[in-house]
Amino acid sequence: MATSNAQKLAQAEQAIDTFLLAFPRILSPPGFPDLQFHGPGEIHGIVILPLWQQTAEFNTNCPHWPHFNTFLDGLAPLMKLITSRISDVLSNPNNLLPDQYAHYPNNFGKAIQAWNIRQSTVLAGQLIQPRILSNMNCFETVRLSAMLASDDPRRPSTSRSSDTVVITTVGDYLYGDMWRHAGDIYKTMDELITLPGKVEILNTRFGVQNNRFTGRRFQLEFFLPDISTV
Q1: What pTM was computed for the model?
Q2: N or C, which terminus of the chain has less Cβ within 10 Å?
Q3: Taken in order 79, 96, 104, 201, is the CA torsion positive or negative?
Q4: Residue at 98 is within a domain
Q5: For the segment 33-64, what is each residue's pLDDT rounded down to a tens digit?
């Protein structure tokens, strides 16, 4: 039986919960003023996770490696859903507004080329097992923001260079809408994500923020690799 979108969101939320409960210290302070109220012992913060290649923090020798892989397994259905939604959009620049487009034509195809290059140039033992088909494996890293809110616009950033980010949220929450600041001078804002599971494709030069919320809100920012040299 096919898994519904709601089930995929719930599975991703459960994967996040399980991972953070096992390793709450994996989260770092957000680096911006957090406006969200947190109850005693509530887990909150930010972590950048690799999806292609092991790092100093996430590798086979780390104590949280089994939990990390279980987390990726739980996130996989949502990743498959997102890549199926964005592959056509990122392959055709006519589908994007000029201020959303991330400088290069065919971002999706070039991201897959970058993944193929990575596979051929990195030892197999250093790669992270893909959870989706190689011809859809376009995300190099994911940034998880747990239970955070801010009115301080920030540009989405990860541990590696990236022009394009795909953002979604999971959880059971009210309010917490995300806004994009239109341009380098933060004067106007466009409302973006208002509901869990909605997907937004953005150029990383635009700042984003989200309102306070009630409930539980997790923001996932999936980053394409640097495609400038592909």
Answers
A1: 0.91
A2: N
A3: negative
A4: yes
A5: 899 999 998 999 999 999 999 999 999 999 99
